Amino acid sequence: ETGVTQTPRHLVMGMTNKKSLKCEQHLGHNAMYWYKQSAKKPLELMFVYNFKEQTENNSVPSRFSPECPNSSHLFLHLHTLQPEDSALYLCASSQGTEAFFGQGTRLTVV
Amino acid sequence: GQSLEQPSEVTAVEGAIVQINCTYQTSGFYGLSWYQQHDGGAPTFLSYNGLDGLEETGRFSSFLSRSDSYGYLLLQELQMKDSASYFCAVSLDSSYKLIFGSGTRLLVRP
After folding, report:
1. Which one, of A9, A105, A3, A95, lies nearest residue A64 by Cα?
2. B21 with B72: CB under 8 angstroms?
3. Which of A56, A98, A102 comes nearest B97 by C-beta?
């Protein structure tokens, strides 16, 4: 247990569905991140939030929409995804040199 | 663009020493981190180098040479449980957001 909790752990959705991924941390960190991990590719930074403000959108398609209502919670809203979006989506938080990752949501788009 | 290069796979025997190298070309540099990820698990922090030199934490050591844009992770007295993927990651600035390499899969054999 790293202190970062992600739900759901697994998600299968159709290309026309709308779903949301949730991330929660109670470590008191100010920065939260979404990463995408695909097979045989580096972890790709998607979004960065500092003190609830989005500070980076790493050229992510608009079918991914993040939301950070407070410094403990981070959401990733998904709509009209493509099969190539199937991946492990990891949330992380940090305050300093160490990032703490959640277990991830394994997303399959059918 | 950002580029971090590390070997894709390394195999070693139990009790041996293994070194995983990482070279980077990034738009900024604040420090080099290493993370371990077991299959199905979350990446977990191993070490951070902000300055040149060697950092030692138990069986694991990490080295950084900023002038060479190079670092390595050294694992000593290998154990079966060390079989995992190891990622180097660069912090681009003081916000510590991380850009990851593609990972090195380490297999420890009896």
Report:
1. A105
2. yes
3. A56
All residues of chain B having their beta carbon less than 8 Å from the beta carbon of residue A101 are 42-44
Question: What chain B residue is nearest to A9 in terms of C-alpha separation?
Answer: B40
B contacts of A88 (beta carbons < 8 Å): none
* Chain segment B8-31, per-residue pLDDT in tens: 999 999 999 999 999 999 988 999
pLDDT per position as a tens digit, A36-61: 999 877 889 899 888 777 777 778 99
* Phi (first) and psi of residue A103, to 5 degrees: -75, -15
- Cβ pair A99:B45 closer than 8 A: yes
Q: Tell me the longest C-alpha to C-alpha distance in chain A.
A: 39
First-to-last C-alpha distance (Å) of chain A: 30
Alpha-carbon Rg for chain A in angstroms: 13
The residue to which tokens 């929409």 are assigned: A65
Residue B94 · residue B28 · CB < 8 Å: no
Question: Is B50 near chain A, with CB under 8 Å?
Answer: yes
Question: Is B7 at the interface with chain A, CB within 8 A?
Answer: no
Evaluate the CA torsion angle B49, B105, B59, A29 in order and state its sign: positive
